[in-house]
Amino acid sequence: MSVSVLVGSQWGDEGKGKIVDILGERFDIVARYQGGANAGHTIVIEDQQFILHLIPSGILRDGIKCVIGNGVVIDPQALLDEIDFLQKHGFNFNDRLFISHNAHIIMPYHKVIDSINESGDNKVGSTGRGIGPCYIDKFDRKGIRVVDLLDKVELERKIRRNVAEKNEILKKIYNKEELDVEVILKDYLAFGNLIAQYITDVPTFLNNAINDGKSILMEGAQGALLDIDHGTYPFVTSSSPTSGGACSGVGVPPTKISSVFGIVKSYTTRVGLGPFPTELLGEEGDELRKWGAEFGATTGRPRRCGWYDAFLLKYSRMINGIERVAITKLDVLSNLDEIKVCIAYELDGKTLEAFPTTVNQLERIKPIYKILPGWKTDISHIRKYEDLPIETKNYLSFISEHSGFEISIISVGPKRSQTIEL
Ligand code: IMP
Questions:
Q1: Which of 53, 104, 215, 347 is a Cys-bridge partner for 2, taking CB atoms 3.0 to 4.6 Å apart?
Q2: 3-101+200-261 fold
């Protein structure tokens, strides 16, 4: 029996899609546990690129069953578009996609409110997919869930109630146009008919699978530092990408989890606003962005780029319980003469023992760097650890030692084949 959790260890975009695709082959089921269509998981198969937002990357491997857990917020149109796109590319959905009846549904008013929030003082650089407002309704116990799509009377009642309330807010507080409830009703009743076939009692499905000896990979979206509780609040997403979110996000108990696997980019990126101690501004950052093609898979926004932060990774390892990791995009560092790694934070002249507890402190810290020599050679064709340049091996040993984890996969390019396993 193996139930593993896979987490993004930094601010998201670590390359989870490719690694889930590779590891997924060893699991019977891949289950996504939080987030929504704000995520963009990129997988390259024989020069064809797939960007998945809601469906677990396991769908690209025959025979793997894919689950969307209750912790995910689902935009039905985005989901149907993704199913359609994958089916057109020959991927089969027969008995392969299972969606929790308890997952919440993103409504048009969530997206409108998201964009209003982004235009005011509370801007965080959201992807604008309605994620935060949908989770607000969930915790306010006003949300519309997947199961509601099956009961037309109940669905209509909830939609009318919620749209009336949101229209009051849109009109009276924001002076915006009201939404047409009849259009929303028509669309969502139609979504129900199309999605009904996938709706499943996910906790029972997964726990039965565990009892039958099946293995499960629980796939997180975003990254630990975007966690609503443990991230750089308020510059975070509205869910729990950390490993703790996996159990509540799919309905599998902590006693069944056997390991936590981290995905770690060999440098650091973040999209949206918020503190970023090792950020490279100016030309150096622009070059890293260009070499790493660091543009958002969902929004196309340029990602902020910076050095590897081992102090941040130590914190991430602690809150997630990460034991082993995949290091991704190592080939991107190949042009550099020297590479910096942040090993400690200094605040007001003192070296910190623990990761700062407030965004204000994080904004004021001074990163302490160790400079390592670069390898200045293309490594994207290398398939064995022994064949990597000595400088690359030293870089890997250094970050592994200073972050406190063991490296078991190294990715040297976007393709499945560009992978080194240790
Ligand atoms: P939201 O989740 O769309 O509300 O965005 C909140 C913050 O999380 C913003 O800074 C986004 O850029 C960031 N974010 C959300 N999803 C992702 C992701 O998949 N990768 C990286 N950053 C993300």
A1: 215
A2: Adenylosuccinate Synthetase; Chain A, domain 1 (3.40.440)
